[in-house]
Amino acid sequence: MWSGPRNISTALMRSWENRPDCSVVDEPFYAAYLADTGLEHPCREEILLAQSRDYGKVIEQLTAGPVATELQYQKQMTHHIPRGLDMGWCAGFRHCFLIREPAQVIASYVQKMPNVNEDAIGIRRQAELFEQIADLSGEVPLVIDSNDVLKNPERVLAELCQRLGIHFYRDAMLNWPTGRRDSDGIWASHWYHNVEQSTGFGPYSRRDPELNAGQRELADRMRPYYLQLAKQRILP
C-alpha cells in the first residue's frame, strides 16, 4: 500500500492487521530515508536505532524469506523511496495506492510538522511510482482514495479485496480494538495517538482546510498528480 503521510494509512494498516490471515510491516524504509536525507524528524535517533539504514538490507528483509501469515501488508511511504532506486524487488507484489486531496494532506501534516514541501508529502513521488510500478508489474495498480474509504469503508474495502482475489473479512476489517501494536513503528508515540484511540474508520467530514498562501500554492501544484491517480480509483 503506497501512501503519503497524513492519509489514514495507519488506520488502514489496523484494518488489515485485524484480519486473521494477515501480518503487517510499518514503513520499513523510514530509517534509510532519514539516514539518506539527514532530515530531523520526531524520534529520529530511535528510528535510526530500530531499523536498518541500508535500502538494500531493507529490501532483503522484505523479500528474502517466507511470511508467517498467508498475507503480508506493507505500509509504504512514497517519499521514503529515493528516485533512482531499483524497484525490481517489488515487481511481483500486488500494489495499491492510497491517495488523498493535497490540501487535506498539507493541513493535517502541518499540525505535526511546521514546515512542509513537495518532498515531505510525497504526492508527486506517488504518481511517479505508480507509473514505474505499472511498467514493472505489467498491470495497472489499484487505487483507493481516503475520502472514499471514510465515506463507505465496507464498499471500498470489499471491492479492493475482490480485485485482489481474497476474502473480505467484514467485521475484522471495519472494527479493531484500541491501543498500540507491537508491529507499530517506534515513531507511533508522535504520529499515532488518534489511531490508538480508534476502534474503526472515523466519520467522513468534508471541510475546506485553511491554508496560508504558500501551502495553497503547494496544494495547487500537487493537485494534477493527485488527479492523475484519482481517475483510476475504486469508487464507493
UniProtKB/TrEMBL annotation:
Source superkingdom: Bacteria
UniProt xrefs under InterPro entries: Class-IV_PLP-Dep_Aminotrnsfr, P-loop_NTPase
Pfam family, one: Sulfotransfer_5
GO biological processes: carboxylic acid metabolic process
Family: Belongs to the class-IV pyridoxal-phosphate-dependent aminotransferase family.
Protein name (database record): Sulfotransferase family protein
Taxonomic lineage: Bacteria, Pseudomonadati, Pseudomonadota, Gammaproteobacteria, Cellvibrionales
